[in-house]
Amino acid sequence: MASNTLYSPRDPALKKRDDFEDILEERRSSSDLRYALRCYVPVVYKGIAPCKPGVLKTAVLQSDRLRHVVAEMSKETGESADVIREEASGILEEMAHRLRLGTVRFFAYSLSKAFKALFQRVRVNEDGIQRLQQSIQEHPVVLLPSHRSYMDFLIMSYILYTYDLSLPVIAAGMDFLGMKIVGEMLRMSGAFFIRRSFGGDKLYWAVFSEYVKTMLRNGYAPIEFFLEGTRSRTCKSLTPKLGLLNIVMEPFFKGEVFDVSLVPISISYERVLEEALYARELLGVPKPKESTSGLLKARKILSEDYGSIHVYFGHPVSLRSLAQGRINRSQYNLLPRHIPRRPSQETQAFVNETAYRLVRLQEENMVLRPWVLVAALLLQNPDGVDMERLVEQTSWLRGLAVSFGAFLDWPDYVSASKAVASSLALHTGLVRTEGGRAQLAMEPKEPGSPEEDLFDRAASVLSCASYRNQILHVFLRPALLGMAMQMAEASRKDDIYSCFSFLRDVFSNEFILCPGGTVQDFDEACYMLTKCAAVHVQKQEVVATEKGQRILSFLTSLFQPFLKGYQVGPAPFLELVDYPRELTCYEALSSDVQKNALAALLRMKVVRKLKV
Amino acid sequence: MASESFGSEEEEQQQQQQRRRRADRRVRALSGHLEGRAEQARDGPPTERDTELRSRSAVPRRRQEVMKWNGWGYSDSRFFFNKKGQAELTGKRYRLSGSLIPGLKDWFEGTFGADLKHESPAKVALCAGAVPPPSLGEAFVAGLQAAALPFSVETEDRAFRSHGHCLHEIFALRRGKVGRVPDLVVWPGCHDDVVKIIKLACQHNVCLIPYGGGTSVSNALECPVEEPRAIVSVDTSQMNRILWVDEKNLTVHVEAGIIGQDLERHLGEQGYCTGHEPDSMEFSSLGGWVATRASGMKKNVYGNIEDLVVHVRMVTPRGVIEKSCLGPRVSIGPDVHHFVLGSEGTLGVITEVTLKIRPIPAYRKYGSVVFPDFERGVACLREVARQRCAPASIRLMDNKQFHFGQALKPQVSSIFTSFLDGLKKFYITKVKGFDPQCLCVATLLFEGDRERVLWHEKQVYDIAAKFGGLAAGEDNGQRGYMLTFVIAYLRDLGMDYYVIGESFETSVPWDRVLDLCRNVKEQVVRECRERGVQFSPLCTCRVTQTYDAGACVYFYFAFNYRGLADPIHVYEQVEQTARAEILANGGSLSHHHGVGKLRKQWMREAVSDAGLGMLRSVKEYVDPDNIFGNRNLL
């Protein structure tokens, strides 16, 4: 049981984090052209001379692994090996990057211009950069940024170029190749393209994994990919995808490299470029296809202010240390290493757990602006709130968030009223302030059909929610405990724990909850709530205190939309439109919530999938 | 062969000489047989004549007379730094003895961050109180006396047989400490003596630990502290006769206590050799080789010990194990020899062994090849193994070991030699563009007829050239082999200056050699750092044997322990993680050092539960009372 474990929670509020530097500052005062053309000599892994992309391709095509797979397939299909090899070569051609310094310099120049127009600041923790520089020289490095925007990988490469670090090779979705010229330019700045799905295609998988592994083994360049697999439309972290992580870990498991450094990177936007698009997408408007003309049309965003970006390079995590005592590497001793093999259960569990761990590290180091607090409060008061009260509540929430370990970018000298005011100013599209009251901008500019009105209202709620979502990970565990206490309707610890465990299970598609970490999460939640004196944890009981009511009711109402969303269930959209007035929770309309709820129900075997 | 069909005058002369030599040998062998028979026929206590015969051994019964009690090898041979800071090896026994080695100091200080000003000298003598008096059953001792078996309860004799040459053992001795020591040392003189001793031990429930040359590096000789019975060390060193030589079948029958150098010397006098040359052959014994599955440097020509053994006799509590014939190969169920080979003293005492012998080769030649880097060196060795044309010995030293070897160059007397050396260096680094921080050297030893050797040499150098290798002369090759004989003496020198070190080995499939070498070295460096070692450690490796399916890799690992409270503990932790890393990278638990007690913890993993059970059941049948209670292996 929970109380018997020896888990001693570290106080999250005491976590020391690095300071930030604004890399745009220098760009505003010196020539972009000179910056783009400057001498660029990055440090490399163990002093290895980076090989040309062409050499890399040959190495992949001639690898034992690929030859083995080609021979196997040839035996199976009866096709000649040459034909299959030709096919493999084609796949590689389509996939491989062609990093060219010239293109990189072009991007360095144009991105400097664009960033200066878009953002006030691009702030980076330089200590993290230094740690990264050290890691790059010692072991192959895998960069794992969070994914909120198309800007993510541009920003990453831009920063690495700025700090004279080797440019990463980036796993990108094939959709980018649809963009004329731009796709190829991305390729020349280090992107390699993978198909979104290639389920049973053995050859594709072999080429792809060998390509990535070859780069990793040779220490060719840091490898960058998004654990979340795709951009999070809701601004909360997505449950990690394991394919690429499996691939980059394998060379270590097989002893081909001594260690691999996994670097979680948190990129937080004060205002996401795709803000409005995401809300529409969540409401069922299909994602616009990536195209060059679309990109050009989108240039009007250049005229808006998107605030600051914070990029936090976390501590490199040594895969070797993680795997110590978990993975028995001698399991690979009895089979030639080039013969592909399904990872053992033990390995899969380890990879999965590591992935969650890394995403949590991303979450922890995600910089939060005061605005996310304001957004959270506004969503709880759909009818608006007095400015004074909003300021007071924000200030209170700030204290709570900090004590739970939130990485809040809110220096002490900025007063609450100022912070609230500047937050509202940056997000005028979402909030209306009139007569000393602040309210979500829900009323459509020009009244249309009821469907359109509903759509607009839902869109603005979802946009606002995407900011609140950024802080959910801070409150998630204590809130689950709070909800469990409500659900259990008793104070016995065992009952509460089982409710907690149930809720955690239900929401494990929605939030980052490490599989098998229930006990730890429960203890953590108890610890956090005890620390702020909201509950009293005894041996057998968990009791809410007088003072804790405010905290607990805030926490439960913070997660209310999800609870509601899951209660409504994945009901058809149109049905709800008939009762717009009865629907109090617009967030239940989010396709993301519906998708996750359905997945949870399927996982918990409440519903069954029938082929239609 | 060519010589048979085109016999010239010269060759005829050679043949005549050969015939004469053979006749000589026969006469000598015959007299040897007679002596041996006389020995065996005689009952009763050993006589004056007997000791005379046995004293031909390089190591006497009282080992302490010529060997160090707290270090490696002969008392008269040790390294030291003279007043000018040049290293010297005392004595006259080795090629290096007496010459000055100017480069060692700089290498030593540079590699370890050591300083000649910081000394950590060894205690001169064993503390009187360190060894408790023997506790023995009188009946057992009386039994020994009745059988007229020579034995000793002297402190020195007992302490000498309480250890092998693991780092922690020598380190403790240097500080005047010994662990548990045997209560008595007994010297059987022949097979029958051993039978008597074991019978007595079974009667009186005494624990026996066989002792051969004492060169174990697996903690195999340590007397288990938890053993409640009296422990008796059975020192086989006096069973050292060559009982017969059979020139028709090219075999020799030897008592198992004979040490390597004596065996080769005596056989050499008759024009033969076994060709089994482990690095420890100066001191290690034939029985020890069999009991640990030893490997010799020249195994490519002569084979490892298991290939050389034709017949073994081992006395166990259950009786004598031996085969009934000397057939070269048999199909009579699982080979019982393989319970004896590698039994590490847990089943009984090996008393007599029949080995294959070969005529001493007419010609031997050293050689060496420089490679631009270790990767290409390994690739070359792999190709040599693939073509099955490995010379008697081929070893590839990594860059650090190459520098180590260079630091051991004795001072050259002639300007011409030093000029030549400079020229060679210039050619390799400047003209050929080898990076001195990457290049590595393979050392070679060819044996056989002169023509064959020369042809073989060309074949190997041609392969090497394909991998960018350049022939680098005989001298470098010879120095490489010398290093292995003096390395243990050098460890004692290091320990005078706060540097401790050890070697460990493994065998691994070819495709994993590079990965294993790199990962193990990095693991050692990382572990040292994490354990608070102040100075970066030396971890270097060489590929010492090639096989069809893999290679043997040998590591040296040493570090400067100044500032550490418990250096031996740190050392052991690092060695453990290094071994775990070896296993994780597909390496074996041991190629030739054996398991002993040092690597016992991994046996289950290494041979599976059922495998371990098989070995256990053999032990249980052969030695139900655990008379051979050294607790090795299982």
From TrEMBL, chain A:
Compartment list: Membrane
Key words of the record: Acyltransferase, Membrane, Transferase
One example of a Gene Ontology biological process annotation: ether lipid biosynthetic process
Phospholipid/glycerol acyltransferase domain: residues covered: 141-270
GO molecular function, one term: glycerol-3-phosphate O-acyltransferase activity
Domain of life, per lineage: Eukaryota
Biological pathway: Phospholipid metabolism
SUPFAM superfamilies: Glycerol-3-phosphate (1)-acyltransferase
SMART domains: PlsC
GO cellular component terms given for this protein: mitochondrial membrane; peroxisomal membrane
UniProt similarity note: Belongs to the GPAT/DAPAT family.
Protein name: Glyceronephosphate O-acyltransferase
Organism classification: Eukaryota, Metazoa, Chordata, Craniata, Vertebrata
UniProtKB/TrEMBL annotation, chain B:
One Pfam entry name: FAD_binding_4
Binding site for FAD: 210-216, 292-295, 344-350
Cellular compartments annotated: Peroxisome membrane
EC number, as in UniProt: 2.5.1.26
Record keywords, A-Z: Acetylation, FAD, Flavoprotein, Lipid biosynthesis, Lipid metabolism, Membrane, Peroxisome, Phosphoprotein, Transferase, Transit peptide
Record keyword Phosphoprotein present: yes
Catalysis performed (reactions): 1-hexadecanoylglycerone 3-phosphate + a long-chain fatty acid = a 1-acylglycerone 3-phosphate + hexadecanoate; a long chain fatty alcohol + a 1-acylglycerone 3-phosphate = a 1-O-alkylglycerone 3-phosphate + a long-chain fatty acid + H(+); hexadecan-1-ol + 1-hexadecanoylglycerone 3-phosphate = 1-O-hexadecylglycerone 3-phosphate + hexadecanoate + H(+)
Subunit structure: Homodimer.
Protein name: Alkylglycerone-phosphate synthase
Taxonomic lineage from the root: Eukaryota, Metazoa, Chordata, Craniata, Vertebrata
Gene behind this protein: AGPS
